[in-house]
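Subject: design request, 480 residues
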């Protein structure tokens, strides 16, 4: 905890991206925080008595970022699956080894992921928690989220059972009664499950539980080989598509599904890095644009990627523009103007998230009356921080998590001078190391290594008519 408890905090003289409805930008702007709320946003504000001033000169003040889909428990295996496809991910977690995770392993992954969020300026994170095999696992997940001063939404799931099974259990009901309270904007709640497209629609029972509990459903939709238009159609025909639904990926879908999502007011969580590497389908912002479907951003899982929305913004811009160029080239056209702007992805990383989560009255922009979730991007040691000309472009393409100088959540400073405040990182490290040791022991060293380094398919090197015959061209790089 910082020494600013109970004292007003004034962010002074930064470039303020308010992300309000008009996307107002203030040069040399100030943001005043009193208690847990933003009380004033303007220029040359008067500092109240006792205020702590944070010099934002040369920096960008923006709302805390919001990640609408992350399997936080998987952070315990950071980067293990860097070379996986989605198939390998499914085999590892769903079929073979996911059930090895004990409550303490869920805790370890969640704790590290939650700390990582704060460090990167992600002030609200949806924990798409589909490793909750028992209510004890769920308690461990929430224990970790509550141990870190960030804002979280627990998406309750369990890949070891059908959602119609776990959602009907007494343990689930009891957990919700004990740990979740409506109106707690530090810990929200969703139900997290997928709809396979089985014509019998067994997921219907789980949707009915969600309706009875009055909680949103988040679902991986349009995932190549796993979920498709049938799932969307079943949800729609049975009346379970609402504005509160979040459709994660929504990649491998036809126009018909996008029409249904748009017509019922739902939003899509794009996890572009995931879609590009794992194979859910091409990141779909270009299609969502044509259907006017709202978008938020997410990182999916740190078994591949880090919980860093700067990279989400960057890859989303790249993927969208790449697609538009390729489509145009296929028609013999040249793209001369971009549809997708840096401003859009900054909006998706902030307001897009708050709207998707139904939290827009509380967070997502820097406006008087909102909860104080604030990020200051500033790094006087970095040659990348100037000139500061196009602030959205600067956030999306120039800044990185190491440039996050100050992070405030709910009025509390959790990172200052590029250092986390009041976080016991060594304890988080010990917990994660214990989980890794346990998993290696449970799987056996050989299986552990084999899981990390899947086989590489053979690359057929093309015949090259220009190759010199007396030169040993090519390395062993692409050969097994
Ligand atoms: Zn996911």
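Subject: RE: design request

Done. Sequence follows.
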């Amino acid at each position: 905890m910082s020494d600013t408890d109970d004292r007003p905090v004034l962010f002074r003289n930064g470039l303020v991206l308010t992300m309000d409805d008009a996307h107002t930008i203030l040069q040399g702007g100030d943001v005043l925080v009193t208690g847990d709320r933003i009380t004033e946003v303007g220029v040359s504000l008067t500092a109240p008595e006792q205020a702590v001033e944070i010099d934002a000169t040369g920096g960008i003040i923006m709302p805390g970022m919001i990640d609408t889909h992350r399997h936080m428990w998987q952070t315990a295996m950071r980067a293990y699956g860097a070379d996986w496809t989605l198939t390998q991910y499914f085999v590892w977690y769903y079929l073979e080894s996911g059930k090895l995770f004990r409550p303490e392993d869920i805790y370890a992954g969640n704790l590290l992921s939650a700390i990582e969020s704060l460090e990167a300026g992600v002030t609200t994170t949806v924990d798409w928690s589909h490793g909750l095999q028992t209510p004890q696992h769920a308690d461990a997940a929430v224990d970790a989220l509550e141990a870190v001063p960030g804002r979280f939404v627990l998406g309750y799931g369990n890949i070891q059972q059908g959602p119609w099974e776990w959602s009907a259990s007494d343990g689930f009901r009891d957990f919700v009664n004990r740990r979740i309270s409506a109106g707690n904007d530090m810990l929200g709640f969703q139900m997290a499950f997928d709809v396979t497209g089985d014509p019998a629609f067994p997921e219907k029972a789980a949707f009915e539980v969600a309706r009875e509990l009055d909680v949103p459903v988040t679902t991986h939709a349009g995932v190549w080989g796993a979920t498709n238009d049938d799932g969307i159609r079943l949800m729609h025909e049975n009346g379970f598509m609402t504005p509160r639904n979040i459709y994660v990926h929504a990649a491998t879908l036809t126009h018909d599904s996008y029409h249904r999502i748009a017509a019922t007011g739902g939003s899509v969580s794009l996890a572009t890095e995931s879609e590009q590497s794992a194979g859910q389908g091409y990141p779909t912002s270009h299609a969502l644009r044509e259907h006017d479907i709202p978008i938020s951003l997410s990182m999916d899982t740190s078994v591949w990627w880090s919980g860093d929305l700067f990279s989400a913004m960057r890859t989303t811009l790249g993927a969208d523009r790449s697609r538009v160029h390729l489509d145009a080239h296929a028609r013999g056209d040249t793209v001369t103007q971009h549809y997708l702007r840096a401003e859009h992805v900054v909006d998706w990383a902030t307001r897009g998230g708050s709207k998707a989560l139904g939290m827009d009255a509380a967070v997502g922009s820097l406006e008087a009356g909102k909860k104080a979730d604030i990020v200051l991007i500033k790094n006087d040691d970095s040659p990348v921080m100037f000139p500061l000309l196009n602030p959205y472009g600067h956030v999306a393409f120039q800044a990185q998590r190491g440039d996050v100088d100050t992070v405030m959540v709910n009025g509390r400073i959790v990172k200052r001078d590029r250092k986390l405040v009041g976080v016991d990182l060594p304890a988080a490290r010990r917990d994660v190391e214990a989980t890794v040791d346990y998993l290696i022991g449970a799987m056996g060293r050989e299986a552990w290594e084999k899981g990390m380094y899947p086989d590489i398919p053979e690359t057929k090197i093309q015949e090259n008519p220009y190759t010199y015959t007396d030169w040993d061209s090519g390395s062993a790089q692409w050969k097994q």
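Residues 37 and 371 are 4 Å apart (CA to CA).
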